[in-house]
Amino acid sequence: MASSSKVRVRLVYRCTDCGTATPKWAGRCTTCEAWNSLVEEAETRELPALPLAASASAPATRIGEVDASFAQPHGTGIDELDRVLGGGLVPGSVTLLGGEPGIGKSTLLLQLLAKWPQRTLYVSAEESAQQVRLRAERLAAVQPDLWLLPETSLPHILSAIDTVQPELVVVDSIQAIADPALPSAPGSVVQVRGCAHRLVVEAKRRGLPVVMVGHVTKEGGLAGPRVLEHVVDTVLSFEGDRHHALRLLRAAKHRFGPTNELGVFEMTGDGLIGVPDASTLFLTDRRAGVAGSAITPTLEGQRPLLVEVQALTNKVTNGVPPRRSAQGLDAGRLALLLAVLERRADLALGAHEVFASAVGGVRLTEPGADLAVCLALVSALADRPLPADVVVFGEVGLGGELRQVAHAPRRLAEAARMGFTRAIVPANSANGVEGISLTRVGTVNEALLAVGLAREARRSNSVLQLQGR
Ligand code: TYD
Ligand code: MG
Fold first, then answer.
1. From ligand 1's centre to the CA of 244, what distance in Å?
2. What is the rounded CA–CA span in Å between residue 41 and residue 63?
3. Model pTM?
4. Contacts of residue 409, Cβ cutoff 8 Å, sequence gap at least 6
5. 286 exposed, middle or buried (CB, 10 Å; 0-12, 13-18, 19+)?
6. Largest Cα–Cα distance of the chain, in whole Å?
7. Ligand 1 atom showing the smallest separation from residue 110 Cα
8. Using a 6 Å cutoff on CB, does residue 115 contact ligand 1?
9. Separation of alpha carbons 17 and 188, rounded Å
10. Does residue 105 have its Cβ closer than 6 Å to ligand 1?
């Protein structure tokens, strides 16, 4: 560490989003363009430079001589978590778990500690020991080898790691701990970055897996500087609608495996329970035969999921620009699909309010869901349900053409498993699977015809009626 005489303090304004420091305050960060994100901070000129990797001073070796067995993941005993982590936690790895308040981060990590076969340490910087104990009782997590430390001071946490000698450490949360040696308030960018850095060094030095909880901002990004994401090995995000029981776990960054796997949990009275069969859960509340609903087999990583897309259209006459609302779908994508329907399928949606959502708190990010959104919209507009045994998928292009999506057979197999018998798919999709008949279509218009909506939609379309079509 630098000697204290060398540490000079200056005032800077630091962006809480990206970590950029400027000498003058401004309403907007010049680097990441976030508004009102600059906070005043006293900063030392030189932060103590700590080596990131324990073996930073090791000599260079041939890659073939490196012992990789150390980096083998240890299963966590929670299947859905292992799925996302690609097998489990790697010794010496640092994982950041982000998510909105109340989503279940502390619950998940307490369950993780309770299942871990060796000694573990839970650093609770936000809740008292009594609160954690009560929650642990509810989760059947009162294990003899689970140690609890209600503490916010980093030096105390490090010395507890020394005395307890745990094999897994959880810090809940990184924003709530502080190092008194750093000249900055708890929760500030300098503190978060400094403490995370110190914990990473400790994890690497001891070969100890560390999981830290990170708060997220209103926009859903991890609070604190981006550097936090760079410093850790794995960034997990825990998502879901707090009003639904469903919770989705994704890896945004993972140095030890793929980042596209999805873990599905259900929040129950006894904590989080893994949901191996998520399609059933998504479709349990579905009412077949309702207009404005389409089922699409989406793919999250290797995992096919059947998701219901719903739409509602409502004609407005008061001249105000009609509302467009997208839940669990990208609003820009919805606007694009509305424009395609308007121009390529001759549907006048300009005077309709449009609401579209992916059901169950799930977020559809892949373009393969486009066709389901389009068909749900037209079904709502025509007030006619789609056939109950049909699933649809395909990316919609600006010309109204349908483009194929990856892994069609896997999606179809999941649809067949859930009892669907027909699929509307892009014309040049791969071959189907047993139990499901394919209707191949080249454009959105052909898809509307295939589900018997083309004429109905037009009939319900008053503009076209006025034009006598
Ligand atoms: P929590 O893990 O404290 O969330 P976070 O750490 O992400 O802020 O979870 C809080 C919510 O979970 C709370 O609203 C109650 C609910 N919950 C259950 O439904 N069942 C349970 O067994 C537990 C422990 C919590
Ligand atoms: Mg918590």
1. 12
2. 43
3. 0.78
4. 430, 431, 432, 433
5. middle
6. 86
7. 2
8. no
9. 11
10. yes
Say if ligand 1 is within 6 A of residue 101 CB: yes
360 lines ligand 1 (CB under 6 A): no
Q: How confident is the model at residue 217 (pLDDT cuts 50, 70, 90)?
A: low
CA distance 254 to 71: 13
Tell me which ligand sits closest to the C-alpha of residue 239: 1
Who contacts 332 (Cβ-Cβ below 8 Å, separation ≥6)?
none
Q: Determine contact, residues 426/394, Cβ cutoff 8 Å.
A: yes
Give 111 Cα–ligand 2 centroid separation in angstroms.
Answer: 13
Q: Say how many residues make up the chain.
A: 469
Query: CA 142, 143, 146: angle at the middle one, nearest 5?
Result: 100
The DSSP annotation for 158-196 comes to HHHHHHH--SEEEEE-GGG-B-TTSSS-TTSHHHHHHHH
CA distance 84 to 238: 11
Closest ligand 1 atom to the C-alpha of 103?
Answer: 7
Using only C-alpha atoms, what is the Rg of the chain?
26
Residue 106's pLDDT band (cuts 50, 70, 90): very high
Q: Which residues pair with 11 in a beta bridge?
A: 42
Q: How confident is the model at residue 39 (pLDDT cuts 50, 70, 90)?
A: confident
pLDDT recorded at residue 320: 82
Residue showing tokens 């052909």: 446
Residue 420 above 80 pLDDT? yes
- Please give the distance, rounded to the nearest whole angstrom, from the Cα atom of residue 53 to the centre of ligand 1: 35
- Whether 304 shows a pLDDT value over 50: the answer reads yes
Average pLDDT over residues 278-304: 85
